[in-house]
Design goal:
The radius of gyration is 22 Å and the shape is globular. It has one domain: Rhopdopsin 7-helix transmembrane proteins. The protein starts with a helix and ends with a helix. α2 packs parallel to α11, α5 runs parallel beside α9 and α9 runs antiparallel to α10. Strands 2-1-3 form a three-stranded mixed β-sheet. By secondary structure, it is mainly α. It contains twelve helices and three strands, in the order αβαααβαααβααααα. Its main location: membrane. Putative odorant or sperm cell receptor.
Length: 322
């Protein structure tokens, strides 16, 4: 009886596509080997930078604070995020168009969107953490204790999972009867919706509303937090302290503006079928450029991290000499 009920659902779905083809960047495919090398170096640098942050935060007790806990968690998710997309992009640059199975495509789409959404929520938490540390320094140790930090990270992961899972399931239930060429370098949800031969109006609106909620909620909270931080910095009595604080904040603003602008351009629009070609370039910024800048901007420019790295390298050098 169960199998009899299952068959009409497959027929009703109408999907005949067994695999998709990732188009990549056909206009510049003749530069494939050069682009492969550039993106491979960027990928390795991003993984190394973010892995260093995670490692030294876990290894050194001086960095086991709420700020570095959130930064190391964010770096871990960044490693996972770029690893979900960049290896396939490298294969495309090296070999040209690449096929990907129906199931693998939706798994990649889920991992990409889920990790991206979690990243936005973590950015929000990090901005609130900085606001609390700078604007409410006396209450900071009480508010941002270890339990609160774990709860906030867990909330980011759970909320992202609840929001994204339903959307991915809805898209996977659409009919795909051809064509099967995705005009992107990974299984982008907007491109998948565009390829469906079903009525996609509801799914498009659902994707738009979820993207709007995730990106704009995160953006608004981050703007409010950093606005209060700037006001607090302006009131600092020492010009040297103000200059140092503004230098740090300006670096953060560069990364945040790249992240938010590229994602608003890609996702916060009601018609996902428009400007798919332009989405590829914006997605490249989001998946290659910002993960490369994050370790440099957020942590590796920090004097405390520099000190920890120098001491770690010295210990390693001494141990080798022995």
């Amino acid at each position: 009886m169960a199998s009899e009920l299952h068959m009409p659902m497959e027929i009703g779905n109408g999907t005949t596509v067994q695999e998709f083809t990732l188009e990549g960047f056909p206009a510049i495919q003749h530069l494939g080997k050069v682009l492969f090398l550039v993106h491979l170096l960027a990928y390795l640098a991003s993984i190394t930078g973010n892995a260093v942050i995670v490692t030294i935060t876990c290894a050194d007790s001086r960095l086991q604070t709420p700020m570095y806990f959130f930064l190391s968690t964010f770096s871990f998710f960044e490693c996972c995020f770029i690893s979900a997309v960049i290896p396939k992009l490298l294969v495309i640059f090296l070999l040209g168009r690449q096929t990907i199975s129906f199931l693998a495509c939706f798994i990649q789409a889920f991992v990409y969107v889920y990790l991206g959404a979690t990243g936005f929520f973590l950015i929000t938490v990090m901005s609130v953490d900085r606001y609390t540390a700078i604007c409410k320094p006396l209450h900071y140790p009480t508010i941002m204790n270890l339990k609160t930090c774990f709860l906030l990270v867990t909330a980011c992961c759970v909320l992202a999972f609840l929001l994204i899972t339903g959307l991915i399931v809805k898209v996977s239930q659409l009919s795909f009867c051809g064509p099967n060429v995705i005009p992107h370098f990974f299984c982008d949800l907007g491109s998948l919706i565009h390829l469906s031969c079903s009525n996609t109006r509801f799914v498009e609106m659902l994707a738009f509303v979820i993207a709007l909620f995730i990106i704009l909620t995160s953006l608004i909270i981050t703007i409010i937090a950093y606005s209060n931080i700037v006001v607090t910095i302006v009131r600092l009595p020492s010009a040297k302290e103000r200059q140092k604080a503004f230098s740090t904040c300006s670096s953060h603003f560069i990364v945040l503006s790249l992240i938010y602008s590229s994602c608003v351009f890609i996702y916060v629009k009601p018609k996902q079928t428009n400007r798919l070609d332009s989405n590829r370039e914006a997605a490249l910024v989001h998946t290659v450029v910002t993960p490369l800048l994050n370790p440099v901007i957020y942590t590796l420019r920090n004097k405390q991290v520099h000190q920890v790295l120098r001491e770690t390298m010295c210990r390693m050098k001494i141990s080798r000499q022995k």
